[in-house]
Every structure is written in C-alpha cells, then in structure tokens.
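Anyone opening a protein record will find just a pair of labelled lines. With that in mind, the following record should read easily:
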Amino acid sequence: MVKLRVSVGGSYTDLTVINCNDELHPIEFETQDFKGRAVVRIKDFVGITNDGSEPIHNSDYFKGHNRKFSFQVEGRFKREWDGEQVYFGTDFDHPVELPTGFDVMFKIAKYIDPIVKSVTEGEKPWILSPLVSSINILSAWRPQDANLPSPPLTPRHSSEISRHSSLNILGKLKIGHSQKNSPNSSNDHLDIHSTQIQILESLTTETFDDTGIPLGHWRQHIEEDTSISMNAKHITNTTQRRKHFQTEKARKEFVFNPSLVYGFEFFSPHIDFNTFDIRLGLSMNIRKYLKGQP
C-alpha cells in the first residue's frame, strides 16, 4: 500500500518527515529569505510519521468544515516583496502525463481563480497563481515580545524511508521576478510544498538581519485579517481580497512587510491526499500520473 509522507525542510536536500495533524508541534524552518513554521492537516490521515508511531488520523479542525486537508504556515519575510512576486501553486521536477479530463478541471479551477497561470508541457510543468489573490486565508499581526519556540521534533529524514513506500504531492509558493517561461525567477524563491515545505536560498544580497527574529506564539488557527497589512477598510473577507487583487496594479502596490508575522492557509474539499482522488466537476485519481514525484 502506498502511503503519504509529509516532509518539511530548508532545502531540497534537508527534509524531515513530520507528523500530520499535530497542531501543538508546528515544524520550524528558516533560510536566508524567510523564518517560519508550519502544520499540515490531512483528514483521515493513514500515512507515515516521523518516528514510526501511529499517525494522528484527524484533527478537531475538520469538524464543521468541508475540507480534506489544510496547509498552515506563519512567519516573517526578511526583505520586502510585492504581491506580484510571491506565487502559490504546484510544480514538478519531471514531465507529467496529464489525465483525460484535465482540461475540463483546469477550466473549473480557472473560473475559481481567473489569474492562475500554467505550463503543463515541457520538462518541468507548473501551475501557479499570485499568493495574495489565491490563498484561502491571509492574515498578519505584529510579533509578540516573547519568542516561544515549538518543542523540537526528533528528525527522521526522508532519505531513511524507502521512496516506493510513499508519494510526495507538491504545492509551491515562489518568490521572484517575472521571466519568459515562468511567473517568477528561478534564483529567488520560497517553496511551500504540501508534502515538502521548503525555502530555497535567495541569491540576493539585500536581506534583513536574521538574528533573533521573533515570531511570537504559534496560532493554532488563523482567520482572514488584513486590517494591519492592507490600508483598505472595504476589504474585510477572503472574497473581497481576491477580487481586489485581480489586477496586476493592485498586486504590485501590496508589500509583504518584514516587521509583520504573516499567516497563510490553503485548504480544499476537492483533493484526498490519502488516495490522490480529485473531485472537481469530474472525478479522477492522479497517483499514477505523478510517477512518485512531488
């Protein structure tokens, strides 16, 4: 039986398997561009844990919510980025054979998120959208004075687990400038994976001092709140924020402030990562098309 594993790390070569649904122990990570922590929730999770223990199958988070998973990240950027430079989505390291019906599903997805961009052919396909207009929940707050780190996990690196016993599913948040074949630069980017939450080092020298960047208390649950990060009183919920950032001008005017802690959450009722089934107008299983890659 193929099992899902979820890994977090500061680079592709430094990943640690984490325990899904462990909301009291977020995994912390830091690179040159970002300092943060994350929790991944998978409904009815039956995958691999970091210490071989029985998985935490569920979370109270799912009670009253029609959701199959949740990726929650909070942290601070170490330099300013505008809303047109930070993208969220999915990419692959190798070509992917698209299943029948993908075009129909993508049209539905584009109806939900009109700004989503994609390159589905070629060596490294991707589907990305600006974070500020696509993420389900965006919140920001000032860090508290006390920096209380999460209790450390006992690391269990992905390399210790047979690759054929698990599959990685990828969601990516990228930071960078636009170029011809991608909505961002390959040199400056922050990757957030559904099974690999990573931040790759930026080549820029314009960074903030990362010594002692306080994040404050971990917020077990976050709600939409842009009152501090946006000077727009008419934007009070996710729908209004997404509509506001439909234009490139609005996205470029928004700046991620390094002095604030940002919370991001992505969730959906359409994908079951235990079985890799997608239900979005049509139903299909995508496991065989991924060929074991994120």
The helical segments are 102-112, 131-134, 238-244, 248-253, 287-290. The two ends are 18 Å apart (CA to CA).
